[in-house]
Amino acid sequence: NTDDIDSIFLSDANDVKFQGNIFGLYDLTIEANRMSLSFEDEIFFFFMENPDVKMDGEKWNRRYIKYCYGNDSVPLYHDLHVSCSGTSLGTYGAVKLYLETIAEMLLQQCPLFYDCCRKPGDQG
Fold first, then answer.
1. What is the H or E stretch that residue 90 is in?
2. Structural contact between residues 89 and 18, judged by C-beta atoms closer than 8 angstroms
């Protein structure tokens, strides 16, 4: 029953180390923002591994952008920070929308760029 789910955590299994209860972040965020947030609001957390790393300096994400959007797209993203979708936390509705969006993107891009769904990427 989706009414019983406060939040969902998506994680890589390969390179994640837990240092505490990730679900506490959801509760703390609601508590700290109780004037503007309620338990009915949809929330999605993106996590950053290292704020100093840009797309040009991170081979996995740069490779994934190239595979799914082509070589010409890399300069559009080169100066952006890397957000890791290998660890994501959100409410049921927010996670559902996120996964639907990723699936839609892959369905659109895979026929255009052969490597998008066939070569290993970091977050796909």
1. strand 84-90
2. no
Contact present, 113 and 85 (Cβ < 8 Å): no
Give the model's pLDDT for residue 124.
47
Q: Angle at CA 120, nearest 5°, toward 117 and 124?
A: 60
Confidence category of residue 95, pLDDT binned at 50, 70, 90:
very high
> Residue-wise over 79-115: b if at least 16 C-beta within 10 A, else e?
eeebebebbbbbbeebbeebeeeeeeeeeebbeebeb
> What is this structure's pTM?
0.76
Angle at 17 between CA 28 and CA 43, to 5 degrees: 35
Residues 83, 121 contacting (CB under 8 angstroms):
no
Please, which pLDDT band fits residue 69 given cuts at 50, 70 and 90? confident
Assess whether pLDDT exceeds 60 at residue 114: yes
Q: Which residue from 72, 68, 75 is spatially nearest to 105, judged by alpha carbons?
A: 68
